[in-house]
Amino acid sequence: MTSHATPHSSTQSAAPIMRAAVVGIPPDRAFDAFVHHLGAWWPLTTHGAFGSDGTVALEGEEIIETALDGRRCVWAEVTAYEPPNRLVLQWHPGREPEEASEVEVSFTAVAGGTRVDVEHRGWERFGESAMLRRAVYARPGAWGSVLDHFGDLIEGDHRPDEGDLATLAAAYASFYDLAETGQFGPAPDGEWDAPLTIAHVALNDIAMSGVCRALIHRETPAFANDLSQDRAVMGALIERCGDHAGLVAFGRRQAATLQALLARLDPDQRESEVPCRLTHDGQVVLDAPRAWWSLAAVGQATFHLPAHVTQLTNLQPR
After folding, report:
1. Among the listed residues 54, 56, 61, 148, the one whose alpha carbon sits nearest the alpha carbon of residue 93
2. Containing H/E element for 101?
3. Of 6, 12, 28, 90, which residue is least crowded by CB atoms under 10 Å?
4. Domain limits of the chain?
5. What are the backbone dihedrals phi and psi of residue 306, each rounded to the nearest 5 degrees, phi first?
6. How far apart are CA 274 and CA 222, in angstroms?
């Protein structure tokens, strides 16, 4: 009798990676937070192509990371979108679509909230490199850590020491409600028109969000507003958004992301002294550390956003 050994396959043990978390909100809200507030919880500092200074969002049927300077990286294509139950992605951050694995995220009602399950599969398509690719996502600091950050976003709604963001929220509402009217004339020579003003506010929020992410990850951040005033960078954002409504919607998303990230900061992080370099009309107006909350929350609400409301108001036809 002859025995036949089964050849070893490097893909035999390339089982799906499974991770899960339970969050204290119902599935519809959990799905919405996971998908539509990605930039507020995804740890770009450690799990992004461009580091802290950027944003990531579902755009159409793609998940795209965008750097502050406009560089873009497609992470995934959505192949199943079934709120509030299921999301399936062809996942290839930093790679071509032909090199995608598959990620399914499911949302199941449980006592007290929602169980969020991530199944990362499809490793067999990579042949001999399957196990190497799988190992990247199986290690500590991968999907389990990512879900911890999602949970932290949800917990921010119930954190007893959360700073007061009501004034900031009202300031954003005033700015974007006015911006949404679209009733603006041309700007005087050398000054910003309405699209440039809206683009500046959005880009400034992206830069501030990057500082919040760095603080959350216990890194040493710095803040500068030069790129948010660069006409080429602002112009590229305006073009990418397509029209006025698209630009306003993009800006509102960045405002929501920044507020959610500010809500995630603990008291020590809020009071962290962050090196800041601010310019206005090409002149340096601040080059010194500032307590982050006083600049990003209080300063935004009481000075920065009201100043741009006045700027938009002055552009309205009289």
Report:
1. 56
2. strand 101-110
3. 6
4. 17-158, 166-315
5. -60, -35
6. 6
Cβ partners under 8 Å of residue 6, min gap 6: none
- Please check whether residue 56 is in contact with residue 146, taking contact to mean a CB–CB distance below 8 angstroms: no
Residues in the chain: 318
pLDDT at site 36: 95
Tell me the residue type at 158.
H
Q: 């921010």: which residue's tokens?
A: 156
Task: Determine the pLDDT at residue 2.
Answer: 38
- pLDDT tens profile 302-311: 999 999 999 9
Of the CATH numbers 1.20.120.450, 3.40.190.120, 1.20.1250.20, 1.10.3210.10, which one belongs to the domain with range 166-315?
Answer: 1.20.120.450
Structure tokens at 233: 């960078």
Reading the block at residue 33, the tokens are 């937070």
- Enter the CATH code of domain 17-158: 3.30.530.20
DSSP H/E element including 40:
helix 38-41
Consecutive 10-residue averages of pLDDT for the chain (318 residues) = 42 83 97 97 95 93 96 97 98 95 98 97 94 94 96 76 84 98 94 97 98 95 96 97 97 97 95 95 92 97 97 94
Residue 258 in contact with residue 212, Cβ under 8 Å? Answer: yes
What amino acid occupies position 177?
D
Cβ distance 36 to 164 under 8 Å?
no
Residues 186-224 pLDDT 10s: 999 999 999 999 999 999 999 999 999 999 999 999 999
| Structure tokens, 136 | 């990247």
